[in-house]
Design goal:
single chain; 108 residues; alpha+beta; 2 helices; elongated
Length: 108
């Protein structure tokens, strides 16, 4: 099992979630976050904005679903054909165990 954490532009959040659902990844947790990337924020005139709004999408997938999930997120979160700074990041981590609270069952 894997945890996929995707940080995307807020305006891409609904599109990414819809496409993930279409490809079979229905369960997701979404958190509104702020942050900055390698560019250290955005400078407009003399103002520097270093807390840029983003959406954090978390999904748990079986190992076999990793590539499809990543491809779906990349395709839908990217701005334009080549992408742009600020489109986001994807992080993959192993999940040792998962339990459903209501049933107590182990696994996804």
């Amino acid at each position: 099992m894997l945890l996929i954490r995707s940080i995307v532009r807020p305006e891409k959040k609904d599109v990414v979630l819809a496409e993930l659902s279409k490809t079979g990844f229905h369960a997701a947790t979404v958190v509104d976050v702020v942050g900055r990337g390698k560019q250290k924020g955005i400078k407009i005139g003399s103002m520097v904005y270093d807390e840029i709004p983003k959406a954090l999408i978390l999904i748990a997938v079986e190992d076999a679903g990793k590539d499809l999930a990543i491809e779906t997120i990349m395709k839908t979160a990217r701005t334009g054909d080549k992408g742009a700074f600020g489109d986001g990041k994807i992080f993959i981590s192993p999940i040792e165990e998962a339990y459903t609270i209501s049933s107590g069952l182990k696994g996804l």
